[in-house]
Amino acid sequence: MSFPASRTSEARLSSEATRPGTAGKAAPHAERIESLISAMTLEEKAGQLTIMPAALAPAPANAANPAAVPGSIEEQAQAVREGRLGAVFNGDSADWHRRMQTVAVEESRLGIPLLLAADVIHGFRTIFPVPLAEAAAFDADLARRTARAAAEEATATGIAWNFAPMVDISRDARWGRGVEGGGEDVLLGCTLAVARVEGFQGDKGLTDAGAMLATPKHLAGYGAGTGGLDYNSVDVSERTLREIHFPPFQAAFEAGALSTMAAFNDVAGVPAHANAWLMKDVLRSEWGFEGFVVSDYTGDFELIAHGLAEDERDAARLAFQGGVDMSMSSNLYAEHLPDLVRSGVIAEADVDVAVRRVLTLKAQLGLFDDPYGRLSPERVEANDQPRYRDLAREAGRKSIVMLKNDGGVLPLRRDQKIALIGPFAEGRDHLNGPWVLFGDPAYAVPVDEGFRAAMDDPANLTVVRGSEAEASLEGGIEAAVEAARGADVVVMVVGEGERMSGEAQSRIDICIPEPQRDLIAAVTAVGKPVVLVLKCGRALVLDETAKQAQALVVGWFLGVETGNALADVLFGAHEPSGRLPISFPRHTGQSPFHYDRKVTGRPPLSLEHGEEFKARYRETLNVAEWPFGHGLTYGDPVYEGLDVGDGTLAWDGELEVSATITNRGARAAEELAQLYIHDRAASVTRPIRQLKGFQRVRLEAGQSARVRFTLTRRDLMFVGRELSWTVEPGRFTVWIGPNAESGLEGTFELLAGDAASA
Ligand code: NOJ
């Protein structure tokens, strides 16, 4: 996949003509929309540009957005009845949604249907692995299927609009919200953005009862907050925005997403919520986006705290003029847009444009034709319990990454005596992850249950918590040590609790909390083989003791099938096949750390030397502990025989790059072959490596396969001096290998051609 240069208008028209359920579906409603707009009061127009938290919402939804003041159920119904409110979010009661829709359609003056939205991040009733974990599967089809399943469940409660996927590239493990995205890499990020949009929206058109409008968020740069601090200022170059942070949005819009959410942060001094360059010049003029922009929660109101707006009225003005069509939670548009128009500050025609966008989307979602279409009794009835357990288990095991397996301690034998130790060894509290509003933890399978089901004799399992996530337990270490002494092998489930990542959960030290480190030290000192299963929503840095465990496995937050998915992989019923979608650095101080960093003018010459005056730290080279793309299998895949043909890529041609992978191990291997390039001389500095392709290959013991990648000049594009996508002839290094810091290396040359067609 190549990164999008800005699209031509012809390309836009043709992709829209063929895409199901977008512009064409609103056309029959265009007249109705125009006559509604001409009949609407300014207050009703502002109402259509307002979304509020649902008055009836599950407790986690209220906890996630504590500042919300939605009013009582009756007050909210009255706001809808009076046309002051056109959308609500994060309710999950089909009955209440039906009642509210009835109020909108039958009791409001103009009968405009209500738009029901929600944060359906990684499942609705069936909770799948957190998005970062699922990214480890490097599997677009899987991401599409889990998003589709989430949409099927969510839409059955009437929800038609999803505040997902989060497509922010995250390269700083201190930032807690990386858990919600696709990791650090642009190609993987684009691939998952497209898959998730396709999954949420489905392939039957947006009017379909199971279709849920996707919202790639947060535009833009939210993952690049200074110091990894959530909500913090972002000050990256326009080149970095265009090359790293924009492409997943562009890919998601090209896949048909018709809404987006502004980011909380400022970008180079201008908050996204008041950034007309971003929301108008780039989003609409360059990319041709025709959907609508919603604020992130009270992001418009926050323009006061940013120091841009003088007061609430000014904040509403700045956000609206900055290109934010709909205001979430603050109610500022409802309160101030009418007066801003009446006093001549904002033109009514501009308000009409935003209202038209929102009504057009309501029409495209089928709400004018059948406001209750998603709420059929059969769908509501099927929605009580998680419906997609098999898929959740498949996604869970494909998300697991094995970092280390010394002496083949894994897979575990089913007849072994196992001590299962750690704060997450049992219980349902830390399985689903930080961003679940609608899934009931009671449905999740704990780790110990998964283990017992996989063992010959469940009595061979001893379970000891040993400590809490961030606090010690009295007698915990002693009990854990005793359990370890009596076992053949120890499995420790340690790391972060589920509230240690997610929104507003930035960390200054991405370590395992101290009480757990003490526990690990005491248990490993017993001398039994130790497997560490890491629960985390970000990269972790391990201390020396933890690193010495015989086996290390990243187990993330895997959702409803956590225990079973882990047991599937740890006991060897399935091969480990996940790969790191983020680098695991050696120290927190390397943050932000990502594999495709720049070479610099003074790269260290060797991994061994303590060379002075090189780009390294006093204490360590600036390389990963476990690099992006890394992940082991139970087999032993060996890469050989790189072939780059004649080593030239004609300007309009293709170059096949291939290698042979042989599994020299005794068990099957699920290998993920990765292709990286480096541009050796260009008009702007280029990263050490960039991922340009990946493919999965399953190899039985002793089996070989040839993996083939095809490169064209589009794969070699970058944002040049003029800040537009370009490509330059010259020499490139290419690797095919198992991760971002190794592989077979070759070179090729892109031959000069007609630069005008770059
Ligand atoms: C704030 C979050 O940043 C955003 O992603 C989410 O959609 C809204 N809250 C609404 O819950």
Secondary structure layout plus pairing:
Blueprint: H1 9-18, H2 23-26, H3 30-39, H4 42-48, E1 50-53, H5 59-64, H6 73-81, E2 87-89, H7 94-107, E3 115-118, H8 131-135, H9 140-155, E4 161-162, H10 186-201, E5 217-219, H11 238-245, H12 247-254, E6 259-262, E7 266-267, E8 270-271, H13 276-286, E9 292-294, H14 303-306, H15 312-321, E10 327-328, H16 332-342, H17 348-364, H18 377-381, H19 389-399, E11 401-405, E12 418-421, H20 447-454, E13 461-464, H21 476-485, E14 489-495, H22 514-524, E15 530-535, H23 544-547, E16 551-554, H24 562-570, E17 584-585, E18 624-626, E19 637-643, E20 648-649, E21 655-663, E22 669-679, E23 690-699, E24 704-711, E25 718-719, E26 725-726, E27 730-737, E28 744-750
The chain binds 1-deoxynojirimycin.
1-deoxynojirimycin binds next to loops.
What does this structure look like?
- About 30% of the residues lie in helices and about 15% in strands.
- It starts with 8 loop residues before the first helix and ends in an 8-residue tail after the last strand.
- Helix 23 links the parallel strand 15 and strand 16.
- The protein folds into 3 domains: about 350 residues, TIM Barrel (Alpha-Beta Barrel); about 200 residues, 3-Layer(aba) Sandwich (Rossmann fold); about 120 residues, Immunoglobulin-like (Sandwich).
- Helix 10 runs parallel beside helix 12.
- With about 750 residues, it is of the alpha/beta class.
- The chain is globular and about 75 Å long.
- The longest helix has 17 residues.
- The protein has 24 helices and 28 strands.
- The protein has a 6-stranded mixed beta sheet with strand order 11-16-15-14-12-13, sandwiched between helices. A 5-stranded parallel beta sheet has the order 4-3-2-1-10. Strands 20-28-27-22-23 form a 5-stranded mixed beta sheet.
- The N terminus is likely disordered.
- 1-deoxynojirimycin binds next to loops.
